[in-house]
UniProtKB/TrEMBL annotation:
ABC transporter domain location: 2-235
Family, similarity comment: Belongs to the ABC transporter superfamily.
Parts forming coiled coils: none
Organism in which the protein naturally occurs: Nocardioides hwasunensis
Any matching Pfam family: ABC_tran
The protein, known as: ABC transporter ATP-binding protein
Keywords: Amino-acid transport, ATP-binding, Nucleotide-binding, Transport
CDD domains membership: ABC_TM1139_LivF_branched
Length: 236
């Protein structure tokens, strides 16, 4: 479904952040990307979403090349929750949530989906009329994910959704990710919490600076790769 093939990404003339990385995500799969800070994980997601250009290589989603003329991640129903979350601070929780569905015409289904997300994230119902800037970091992350889901995405791309959050919220976010996987959602997840990411994912890619894949596979497969175990500092 998503195919990233030998991509290179540069920032300016001096930073070659991703150097020949490939990865695949199949329909209904939950794939995680783990690796140390600065390894290039976020950059890969930005390239997938067409936010940063690739210098070479190819990224396709359902056969359509990302960045090609006419490509639109929204049209392709790819939803992206960036590390910064992208919440509109000046709007209420409800307004933020509705914005996630702004391109949809099926208004009745949108209402049903809002209800479904409020059930999934009860805190958003409680704070529906509250300014989004008043939410805690964990609440904002829940809003960001709920808003991304309002597109009815065919691919959900999450960048470090648990970064800096309290353990109880980390558990909640991982529960939601598991729930979405059980619902059949296709997910590409970048996580700094390698233990949890390996547990929750069908397959994982271990990425090493500068933007190269050190190993790929299920947790069991990765556990059998000495380079990977050495790099992670634990056996998956
Ligand atoms: P982190 O977990 O810290 O976000 P990461 O694995 O996601 O790390 P990236 O954010 O993709 O890594 O960064 C990869 C490399 O590219 C790093 O060396 C980083 O300093 C550099 N980089 C990222 N964004 C920019 C930018 N806008 N301009 C210049 N260099 C950048």
């Amino acid at each position: 479904m998503l195919s990233v093939d030998d991509i290179h990404v540069h920032y300016g003339a001096s930073v070659h952040a991703v150097q020949g990385l490939s990865l695949q995500v199949g329909e209904g799969e939950l794939v995680s990307v783990i690796g140390q800070n600065g390894a290039g994980k976020s950059t890969v997601l930005k390239a997938v979403m067409g936010v940063v250009p690739t210098a070479s290589g190819r990224i396709t989603f359902d056969g359509v090349e990302v960045g090609a003329s006419g490509f639109s991640s929204v049209k392709q129903r790819m939803s992206y929750v960036p590390e910064s979350r992208g919440i509109f601070a000046g709007l209420t929780v409800g307004e933020n949530l509705r914005l996630g569905a702004i391109v949809r015409k099926d208004r009745k289904l949108v209402e049903a989906d809002i209800e479904r997300e409020l059930e999934r994230f009860p805190v958003l119902r409680r704070y529906w009329d509250r300014g989004a800037s008043l939410l805690s970091g964990g609440e904002q992350q829940q809003l960001a994910i709920a808003r991304a889901l309002m597109l009815r995405p065919r691919l959900l791309v999450l960048d470090e959704p648990t970064l800096g959050l309290a353990p109880i919220v980390v558990d909640l976010i991982f529960d939601v990710v598991e729930q979405l996987r059980a619902e059949g959602m296709t997910i590409l997840l970048v996580e700094q919490n390698a233990v949890r990411a390996l547990e929750v994912a069908d397959r994982s890619y271990v990425v090493q600076a500068p933007g190269r894949v050190l190993g790929e596979g299920t947790a069991t497969e990765l556990a059998a790769q000495p380079d990977v175990v050495d790099h992670l500092g634990f056996t998956p």
